[in-house]
Amino acid sequence: MEPEPIQWRDDLDDVEGTECPVFIRQNYQEIFLAWDMLDKGVPPAAGGWAQQPYHWIQALQAIGPEIIRAERERIEMMKKRHEEND
């Protein structure tokens, strides 16, 4: 049994619905894998940007800055640990 859809609203773009336009039925693991592949130059689907499913583009745009931020934080933490051990 699937849970009831959650109503959402994006005031910035003045849209609303019951399915998140960013993560429409996509497994988080698939999105992270798609980001990793895109970082290596391989888009989620065959073709160029015009052929990519829109929900993938939205998901990657949403998750990309967070992945970059987390990676920077991880690097800073590693540098700090290294400096503390010197």
Order of helix and strand elements from N to C terminus: EEHH
Oligomer: single chain
Number of helices: 2
**Count of all domains:** 1
Helicity level: 40-55%
Query: How is the largest sheet built, in terms of strand order?
Result: 1-2
- Rg over alpha carbons: 17 Å
Helix vs. strand class: mainly alpha
Query: What is the CA–CA distance across the termini?
Result: 55 Å
Give the percentage of residues in beta strands: 5-15%
Overall pLDDT confidence? 77
Total strands: the figure is: 2
How would the global form be characterised?
flat
Largest sheet, in brief, is: 2 strands, antiparallel
Given as residue ranges, the uncertain stretches (5+ residues, pLDDT < 50) are none
Task: Give an overview of the whole structure.
The protein has helices at 28-39, 54-85, and strands at residues 8-10, 15-17. It has a two-stranded antiparallel ribbon with strand order 1-2. The longest helix is centred in the last third of the chain and has 32 residues, at 54-85. It has 86 residues and is mainly alpha-helical. The chain has one domain (24-85). Helix 1 crosses helix 2.
TL;DR of this structure?
By secondary structure, the protein is mainly alpha-helical. The chain has helices at residues 28-39, 54-85; strands spanning 8-10, 15-17. Helices cover 51% and strands 7% of the residues.
For this entry, give a set of tags.
single chain; 86 residues; mainly alpha; two-stranded antiparallel ribbon; 2 helices
